[in-house]
Each structure stands twice: as C-alpha cells, then as structure tokens.
Write a structure and sequence with these properties.
alpha+beta, 41% helix, 14% strand, elongated
Length: 155
C-alpha cells in the first residue's frame, strides 16, 4: 500500500497522505490538542541567507513537542549537511481538534450566558412587580427608628 500521492485537477495540485480507515487500527478521539498547542512556539526570524523576515515554527522546537511533523537533520551547528525540516500540514489535525474543543466551550458559555440573561430578566420583572405593589399601598407615616425607641429619655 502507498503512503500518499500527488494529483491534480488540471489547475491545482493535491498532496495526499494515506488516510484510509482500512489501513488503521485502535482509532480514538485525540484529547491532547490544548497541551500541544500551548507547547508550540510561533516564532519570527531573519533568514541568514537573504535577511528576509520569516514567521512560523522552528523544527528543532517542534520535534520536542510533536516529532511526527519533523524530519530530523544533523546537529552540527557549524556544518549543515542535512537541514531539519517540518511538514506543518501534520499540525492540521491538532489544530482542528483544538478548534472543535474551543467551539464546544464557547457554545457552553453562550448557553450559560443565555440562562443568566433569562434569570436577570425574571428578576427584573419581579422587581418591577414589587415596585408596583409597594407604590399601590396606602402611605403611612414612617415608624420611629428602632434605635431612638431604645435610647433613654433625655432630662
């Protein structure tokens, strides 16, 4: 069985990796997306060869977090014979899992907020009804404050 293919519709190439369910076993939902996302460092840099600015990931840093996305190179800092590289598309499933998790949490927060908004509206209606009830009662002279009733008479 192949590991992937490159195909084209005549205008756009597609870089396909094997994803056939029949080639896989022990399929489970991925639960570690948040931890991986938090560990990835998005970096900016200047390329030594051109001075142009770059933005993305450093393969050596990603290897410590998600080695499946990295092709290791040599480790000699002076003489590069084989560069480290990475396939950022391998992060797409991690990003998708985290987006789904965030969407679920946002939906839960929105539901909580809707419930709280409804409760506030109910309390506002109750308060308005109480104000109307109090306003409809006959006015009486206010009772003397309790403290003044307990004070001894002054001579």
């Amino acid at each position: 069985s192949g590991v992937g293919s490159i195909s084209s519709d005549g205008t756009t190439p597609s870089y396909n990796t094997s994803s056939d369910q029949r080639l896989k076993t022990a399929i489970t939902d991925f639960k570690e997306s948040g931890r991986l996302i938090d560990a990835l460092r998005v970096r900016s840099w200047k390329w030594k060869s051109s001075g142009a600015m770059g933005l993305g990931f450093i393969a050596q840093e990603v290897a410590a977090v998600f080695p499946q996305a990295v092709t290791r190179g040599d480790d000699d800092p002076e003489h590069i014979t084989r560069q480290w590289s990475m396939d950022a598309s391998k992060l797409v499933p991690v990003l998708t899992a985290e987006i789904k998790s965030l969407r679920s949490r946002v939906a839960a927060l929105e539901a909580d907020r809707a419930g709280e908004t409804s409760a506030i509206a109910d309390l506002s209606r109750q308060l308005a009804a109480l104000r109307t009830e109090v306003a409809a009662q006959p006015h009486r002279a206010p009772a003397a404050p309790l403290v003044s009733q307990l004070d001894p008479p002054t001579p």
